[in-house]
Amino acid sequence: MPATAIRHDASCGNDYSRAVMKPRDRILATSLALFNEEGVGKVSGTRIAAELGMSQGNLHYHFRRKNDIVDRLVRRWEQDSEPVLAGPSAGLQSIDDLWLFMHLAFEKIFEYRFIYRDIDLLLSEFPDLGPRLRRLTARGVETTTRMCNQLAAAGCLRARTEDIDVLALQMILTATCWYTFAKLMPDGDDVGPGRAAYQVLSLLAPFLADDERLYVEYLRRKYRA
């Protein structure tokens, strides 16, 4: 991918913001953009240094190995994900509240999408990552289940407890696999956070009250126009 394209990736910010970053933060921002675009396995420390116009020695001063960069990014993703996975502080009253939560979650997933695309490689390279990812996934299922139960209590969702358990798991499954599946979608298709949130929300459609189903139909027209 051309260097100019990497520099304008949303995860890196613009040229000015990168220029005022500390070297360690510049390394992380550029590495994140490269990993997201090309995959961890295809990006070497040499490539990262070249992209930054930095010597290998300078890169190694901040991070001895590429795996140290990956580990720092994964830990930052874990920290950033915690507030999202906690869910809204107040109970949900409409499907729009759930859509907002899903949109925010997918924005965070998109920001660190290399983790989901390269999960097999990461689990083999970082054995301690498995339990951490399982905890985060379980947290996502728990939060989604709680929000669906809140929607059911508000009369927005007509689903039994066992239905909600299955739906919550399916919603997290779709969220986790979205950016891997997106690689197989036709070029030009919208695969961004909004479209992804809509696809997850659509799983609830058969169980929604009439007014809430109209909102999902509105999203369908928006993202499938």
Rg computed from alpha carbons, rounded to a whole number of angstroms: 19 Å
The number of distinct helices, counting runs of at least 4 residues, comes to 13
- Beta fraction: under 5%
The tally of strands reads: 0
Helix % is over 70%
Oligomer: single chain
What's the CATH superfamily of the largest domain, by name?
Answer: Tetracycline Repressor, domain 2
Arithmetic mean pLDDT? 87
Which segments are poorly predicted (pLDDT under 50) over 5 or more consecutive residues? Answer: 1-13
Instruction: Write the H/E string, N to C.
Output: HHHHHHHHHHHHH
Second rung of CATH, namely the architecture of the largest domain: Orthogonal Bundle
Report the end-to-end length measured between terminal Cα atoms.
30 Å
Q: Provide the CATH topology of the largest domain.
A: Tetracycline Repressor, domain 2
- Overall tally of structural domains: 2
Structural class: mainly alpha
| Sheet having the most strands | none
User: What general form does the structure show?
Assistant: elongated
What does this structure look like?
The protein has 225 residues and is mainly α. It folds into two domains: 3-62, Arc Repressor Mutant, subunit A, CATH 1.10.10; 73-224, Tetracycline Repressor, domain 2, CATH 1.10.357. The protein is 72% helix and 0% strand. It has 13 helices and no strands. It has helices at 3-7, 15-19, 23-38, 45-52, 56-62, 66-86, 95-111, 113-117, 119-125, 129-153, 161-181, 193-202, 210-224. The longest helix has 25 residues, at 129-153. The chain is elongated, with a radius of gyration of 19 Å.
Topology (elements, then pairings):
Elements: H1 3-7, H2 15-19, H3 23-38, H4 45-52, H5 56-62, H6 66-86, H7 95-111, H8 113-117, H9 119-125, H10 129-153, H11 161-181, H12 193-202, H13 210-224
Helix pairs in contact: 3-4, 3-6, 6-7, 6-10, 7-12, 10-11, 11-12, 12-13
